[in-house]
Specification:
With about 130 residues, the protein is mostly beta strands. The chain has one helix and eight strands. The structure holds zinc ion.
């Protein structure tokens, strides 16, 4: 497997990446409207509240949409085969993107129950990914 193209880390997202080092998924929650949002940013996209707190998520979700990629993407090797890129609705109410691993890409489908899994990056952070939930 070729090396992953690794995402940059900004200060605004530091709490997210720090938690991934411990295998924990955290989401930014707005203290004004008491709901999580994604992607991480300094103000709530609904109410513009600027008091944001990071809270741990359960890590369970449902596939909202999936696309199976047959051409290798950046940092990927053709020998790795097709892979599934999915939008996942987490039970907390936010939609995130990730690959669904640990099953054939063609088996990933809308409505599938998935759970967070992690893929190691070179600096100790881990990439948010998903696997079928038993
Ligand atoms: Zn808000």
């Amino acid at each position: 497997m070729s090396p992953l193209l690794e995402p940059p880390a900004s200060d605004e997202v530091a709490p997210f990446w720090d938690a991934t080092r411990r295998g924990k998924l955290v989401l930014p929650w707005c203290r004004s409207c008491e709901r999580p949002f994604w992607y991480p940013r300094a103000t709530c996209p609904r109410c513009l509240g600027d008091t944001v707190e990071w809270r741990q998520a359960r890590g369970d979700g449902t596939v909202y949409a999936v696309s199976v990629q047959h051409q290798p993407g950046p940092g990927r090797d053709a020998a790795d085969g097709p892979y599934a890129v999915a939008l996942i609705d987490l039970d907390e109410g936010v939609r995130v993107m990730g690959n669904v691993l640990a099953c054939a890409a063609a088996d990933v489908h809308v409505g599938m129950s998935v759970r967070v899994t992690w893929q190691a990056l070179s600096d100790g952070r881990q990439l948010l990914q998903f696997a079928p939930r038993e």
